[in-house]
Amino acid sequence: MRRPILPWQRTPWLIAALFVVVIVLEYSTPPPYVFGYLYIGAVLLASGGLGRGATRWVTMIAIALTLLNLVIPGLEPITSITIANRAITVLALVVTGWLSDRIQRYEKAITHQHAQILAQAQLARMREDFVSTLTHDLKTPLLGAIETLHALEAEQFGAVTSAQRRAIAIMTRSHQTTLQLVETLMDVYRNDSEGLRLNLTAVDVVALADDTIMQLTAFAASRQVHMRLHQGESDFRQPCWVRADVLQLQRVLSNLIANAIHHSLRGSLVEVVIRPRGDDCLVQVLDQGQGIAAEEMIHLFERFYQGHSDRQAKGTGLGLYLSRQIVEAHGGTIWAESRQPRGAVFAFRLPAQPPVHDNVAVATLAKPILPETFQP
Question: How far is the C-alpha of 132 from the C-alpha of 1, rounded, in Å?
Answer without folding.
Answer: 50
